[in-house]
Amino acid sequence: MAEPMKIRATVKGDVADIRVLIAHPMETGQRRDAKGELVPQHFIQSIVVTYNGKTVYTGQWSQAVSRNPVFAVRVRGAKAGDKVSVTWVDNKGDRRTDEKTVDAA
Amino acid sequence: MRPDFKSSRHPRPRSLLRIRALRAVAQRARAATTVACAVACGAALAQDGKVDPLAVGRQLLAEDNPGELWVQRGEKLFHAKRGPRQVSLEQCDFGLGPGKLTGAFPRLPRYFPDTGKVQDLESRLLTCMVELQGYARADIVKGAFSTLDHDSDMEALASFVASRSNGMSMNVQLDHEKEREMYKAGEYLFHRRSGPTDFACVTCHGDEGKRIRLQELPNMTDRKQIQAVVSGWPAYRGTQSTVRTMQHRLYDCNWQMRLPDLDFASDMSIALTTYLNYSGNGAVIQAPGVRR
Amino acid sequence: MGGTRRSFLRLAASAAIVATAVATGLTRSREVWAQVWNKSGFEAKAVAEALRSLGAANATDSKDIVITAPDIAENGAVVPVEVTSRIPGTESISIIAEKNPFPLVATMELASGSEPYTYVRIKMGETSNVRVVVKADGRFYTAAKEVKVTIGGCG
Lengths: 105, 292, 155
Prior knowledge:
The structure holds 3 protein chains of 3 kinds.
Chain A: E1 6-12, E2 15-21, E3 44-51, E4 54-61, E5 70-76, E6 83-90, E7 95-101, E8 103-104
Parallel strand pairs in A: 1-8
Antiparallel strand pairs in A: 1-2, 2-5, 3-4, 3-6, 6-7
Chain B: H1 16-29, H2 36-40, H3 55-63, H4 67-79, E1 110-112, E2 117-119, H5 121-131, H6 137-142, H7 153-163, H8 177-191, H9 201-205, E3 211-212, E4 215-216, H10 223-230, E5 235-237, E6 242-244, H11 246-256, H12 267-279, E7 289-291
Parallel strand pairs in B: 5-7
Antiparallel strand pairs in B: 1-2, 3-4, 5-6
Helix pairs in contact in B: 4-7, 5-7, 8-12, 11-12
Chain C: H1 3-11, H2 14-24, H3 29-36, H4 39-42, H5 47-54, E1 60-61, E2 65-68, E3 72-73, E4 79-85, E5 90-97, E6 104-110, E7 117-122, E8 128-136, E9 139-149
Parallel strand pairs in C: 1-9, 3-9
Antiparallel strand pairs in C: 2-4, 4-7, 5-6, 5-8, 8-9
Helix pairs in contact in C: 2-3
């Protein structure tokens, strides 16, 4: 099971700032391991963020997004207590969904 | 020639030719006022200027720290029943009694009567993993530094335990004679020139305004700067894509100085850590930090 | 998969397809994800090709795309890039690292409620322009900022 994401969601005024930390190797497929063998591509291709159940962000990523990726989304019309859900799916079909409730700043 | 490259997540082969070349360069450069390593590494120095060109990037990277994922994993590992004895680390004594975490990290390294040695955070974790959980010492040491192909539990555990003292001040005390010995040994090692480049730690870290390429080198003889150093370890290192601990930082310094490998949890590593942490007493702990 | 099918999928609001897959937990969702992933764009080796795959070959320069990224990144593996678009009707933001072996790094589609904002950390192989393409009301706009990448320290 993939490592849980760390999601920080705070609201200032009526904008929620959602920041996500993900543990993922994001292998480019160009690296060689200690034995000299090419490590195959293994990276997050798709990210979906929903806010109170509605999709607000759909990301398509390449292997050039950093290892252990960090990304952020902002949503207007937000208030504390709202629900955020983040899902990622990688090129091997592995996936992970984590949720967070929005906190006041 | 070493077959396994522990020094970083990216294998870096060494060769005798390179060491000889560096020695020759170092001998010429020692007389210069700028840092010898910059010449050895063959790169031009950036222009001096009032505005720090790296500040924006560092600020952005500091705002969100993947190191928090290591704390999260470390907490799980700490409480899980693991190893041949299927026991958790909850009874591990970091100096304040079994299982007492808050306030333990700022007092390390310190003397432990059960082992009769001065130990830092990682060597204490090693002791507990061996004595409580039944792991083989050699196995833990072998996997202590993660690579891009394997994750180290040690790094996650160290992140977690250190983070439990966040907001507290570094407070190494030299009450025991062995602690004082370790401090003195560390101070000596910090100032001792050795190896093919004839550097000491103080060569790079003993003056204001020193730099390697664009990397400013903290002057660790200045209290504020050494405090800034010790407050940030363990740290998520962007170039390593993992949390690195002080053990690894010192290991990497040894590598950069073209010295023999610094053994994990060795007396030398603990002596240096004792000297550095004590010199940085008063530093507010914020683990894990964020580093290049 | 033919070109018409790819264009159809693009027109068919990829966000909706993906969101449905997530919501209903389709067991074949992996294929669905793969279909909406802009393969030709992400595998393009030239910037022009990447732009074409986005439909943005004729993007107009815009001063209303604010790119916040370091002038000098001390580590090319983690370059923070933040984009705010002041163009009304912003629907998507794409990030291209022009000198990367595969320049297209990410495309973010923003549904209503989302601020025209994105932040992601990217890998850059060398000093290069970071080019941003914004799609707003069906039209494309672009801006770029140079980010210098250094190797710090002692190797």
